[in-house]
Amino acid sequence: MVIIEARELTKIYGSGDTAITALDHVSLKVNEGEFVAVMGSSGCGKSTLLNLLGGLDKATDGQTLVESQPLDQLTDDALSKLRRQKIGFVFQFYNLIPVLTVVENAALPVTLDGMPEAAAHEKTRHWIDKVGLIERAASHPNQLSGGQQQRVAIARALVAEPKLILADEPTGNLDSHSADEIAGLLRIVANEWGRAVIMVTHDAHIASYANRLIFLKDGAILFDHKRPENTLNGADWVLEMVRGYI
Ligand SMILES: Nc1ncnc2c1ncn2[C@@H]1O[C@H](COP(=O)(O)OP(=O)(O)OP(=O)(O)O)[C@@H](O)[C@H]1O
Ligand SMILES: [Mg+2]
After folding, report:
1. Which residues line ligand 1 (CB under 6 A)?
2. Out of 43, 47, 109, 208, which could bridge 234 as a Cys pair, Cβ 3.0 to 4.6 Å?
């Protein structure tokens, strides 16, 4: 089932002589259970694409459809609600609230939507357990490693049970061991828990955890390839694909 579709998405910042075309007629479809890595050099439009897919910014032209719902037909309130319920976001710097515990942080998408605290915390503890942090449920973010904080952010992204997870450089602030763990967890989120996961990364090794690689250049898709089923070494496959581009 198609979870998200982009139709000819174009984003132009500014106007006249100083206009920058950050995204240039980008189209894609992502199914449930797919883990997509988005690569490309700095400034090629990766974050712009993710922001348009997640309804965090508006396209100059073209459309995003989340579970067949075109985002441009929604009011601001309806769009905020759709984002909370249908999309989980993961960012490079975790964006956890220091004064809240692990459970309170991860519960925010459902408590903000009005779920009573007891039910919200029970549901959240389920996801905190799934990401391997249940014994830290009462800790505060500053008591956790970067990799653990990113696990909390992933639990927060999953707590409302969205079918789509968007992650912009989720391993960008982590040491290589923690980065591997987070990429491995996102692979489980897609392949075992059936979410569509779209992850931006600069790192070919981290991209090798994905089943599909989209490479952007100057705001356009240079290639969009599924990893062949019989590829033994994903890292070799990604390196082969991106050779000459990075
Ligand atoms: N708010 C903005 N106003 C003007 N230009 C912008 C804005 N946001 C991004 N751009 C420009 O759009 C282009 C794409 O930016 P974007 O942030 O999507 O790139 P990126 O691929 O995510 O880069 P990086 O790898 O450095 O994160 C760049 O030329 C950038 O300077
Ligand atoms: Mg970026």
Report:
1. 13-14, 20, 22, 40, 42-48
2. 208
- Among protein residues, the one with the nearest Cα to ligand 1's atom 3 is 13
CA of 175 to the centre of ligand 2 (A): 19
CA dihedral 180, 185, 190, 192 (to 10 degrees): 120
The predicted model scores a pTM of 0.95
User: What are the structural domain ranges in the chain?
Assistant: 2-90+145-242
5-52 residue pLDDT tens: 999 999 999 999 999 999 999 999 999 999 999 999 999 999 999 999
The alpha carbon of 48 and the centre of ligand 1 are apart by a number of angstroms equal to 6
CATH number attached to the domain at 2-90+145-242? 3.40.50.300
Nearest Cα residue to atom 5 of ligand 1: 13
Q: Give the ligand 1 atom nearest the CA of 51.
A: 18
* Ligand 1 atom with the shortest distance to the CA of 219: 14
